[in-house]
Amino acid sequence: LPTGLSSTPPASRFIFPRIGTAAAVIHGIACLLLMCLGFGVAPWLGAGAIGLSLFLIGCAAPGVPALLAVLTEQAPPRQLAMAQACLSVVATLAIGISTSVFGHLFDPSTPESAARPYALSLVLGTLGACPLLALLVPIAREQLRALRVGEGAGSE
User: Fold this and answer.
1) pLDDT tens-digit readout, 24-34
2) Conformation bin of residue 106: beta by default, left when phi > 0, alpha when psi is -120 to 50
């Protein structure tokens, strides 16, 4: 949480204007998937993998306001509130369901069973990220192109 809270203001000041909000969301997704991988290998690699995974949670934190910014930029004004509400509902349901399911899967008695929920979250997270990435990559390319054009106009 401290890393997430301390990373969001600098990200909105320095990262979003340089790479765009869609690229920041893609970065956040990548950090979350790497975090799942880090927690999954932690039973074998130890505390270093856990520390890296916790750091990656903070690195992924700016992806949330970036996703809201992408929604604001892309959604029609009449559907913006509905899109933001759907995002909140989906996130709340995902957290609630995964907490109870992963609680039954987690067994610290062996490294394999301790890694099971993180392997499942990596697979499900990758499957969930694919359609989102298919929507975000063209937006990120457009934003990066516009940022490069803006930089070129500013230097002349």
Assistant:
1) 899 889 998 89
2) beta
Tell me what pLDDT residue 30 has.
92
Half-sphere exposure of residue 124: CA atoms within 13 angstroms, side-chain side:
12
In sequence order, what DSSP letters do the residues of the chain get, joined into one string? -HHHHHHHHHIIIIIHHHH-HHHHHHHHHHHHHHHHHHHHHHHHH-HHHHHHHHHHHHHHTTHHHHHHHHHHHHS-GGGHHHHHHHHHHHHHHHHHHHHHHHHHH--TTSHHHHHHHHHHHHHHHHHHHHHHHHHHHHHHHHHHHHHHHHHHHHH-
| Tokens linked to 2 | 């401290």
Contact indicator for 52, 38 with CB cutoff of 8 Å = yes
